Amino acid sequence: MDDKKxxxxxxxxxxxxxxxxxxxxxxxxxxxxxxxxxxxxxxxxEYGHRLYLYIRRIVVDHDDAEDALxxxxxxxxxxIDQLQDKDQLVPWIYKxxxxxxxxxxxxxxGLFRSIDDMGGVLERKLTAECSLDADAAELLLQQALLxxxxxxxxxxxxxxxxxxxxxEIALITGKRIGTLKTNYSxxxxxxxxxxxxxEL
Amino acid sequence: MKEIKNSRKSDVFREKDDYxxxxxxxxxxxxxxxxxxxxxxxRKRKVMLLAAATVLLFxxxxxxxxxxxxHDLPQPHPASSPSPNVIAQASTPSPSTDRGVDAxxxxxxxxxxxxxxxxxxxxxxxxxxxxxxxxxxxxEDAFDEVLNSIDDQDMKYIDDYEVEDxxxx
Lengths: 200, 169
What we know:
The complex is a heterodimer. Chain A is mainly α. Chain A has helices spanning 23-31, 36-59, 62-79, 89-108, 119-129, 136-146, 150-161, 166-173, 177-197, and strands at residues 4-5, 11-12. Chain A folds into two domains: 1-108, RNA polymerase sigma factor, region 2, helix turn helix motif (Rna Polymerase Sigma Factor, Chain: A, Orthogonal Bundle), CATH 1.10.1740; 131-200, Orthogonal Bundle (Arc Repressor Mutant, subunit A), CATH 1.10.10. Helix content of chain A is 67%, strand content 2%.
């Protein structure tokens, strides 16, 4: 057993855990009352990093991303036994993460403002929080994404960064596949035209 | 765009992978603690609701007893309720209503010849219009009518009659 202590001095068992190759074992652990905690740790070990980056691309701010990730973990662990179709575990987690991220963005908007109007604010946060050695092309792509409407931005992030299928995105967003394809196409065209305008 | 995706080594954000893993672990720990607290809260709430329901039940029973005592209402007695024999007798169907089954096992239809005759509308009303209970003569009025109906001759006979003349039984 390769136990390691984290910054708070707690023993972490996630280091010695191996993520099960088949998701059936993970689902069985999540269904069982005794092994749920271990299964949840395995689940978040596998998807936690992706989930954080997905949330971070939506809310941009690090503190907001941490809050949204925290709330997502709480909701997932509290309601994991209410999940009917275990095959939809990943879309279900992404759905919760999307909802929590949008809730945090809504919290920052004014009374009569939409999340879509927050592009300028999020862009300033991105410029302030980006790494000094960040890739210029990547930074420009992020800025182009912040120009998009929220729905197109969400679909682009899920499709481009997280490689989710249209069926999975449809489960997450509740939209039809045709609508998703149209939105993604619009998003790609807008991003390409933005990158061309900035001579990349 | 594909070139950006393929050449992506580190994300645009400054947080390193180790730090993100630590964040995830911390979020997982907090979620597990939160679920434990949530379960305890749910159990406490269940116990509180049960206790409140019990207190309310006893309070309503006590209030009912106190109401009976203050208003001199008779206490419910077990003898006042019908006996099990009476209930069983009432619940068994009477032989007149049991029509039985025919040869095919279907329940027999009601005999149409013995159907009660249909009376014209409003015939069943035994109380005539305008004779509501409030309009009926009271007992005092009836007594006065009886007195008035006695002839004066009879009254005279009664006046002449002596108490001593009443035979003993």
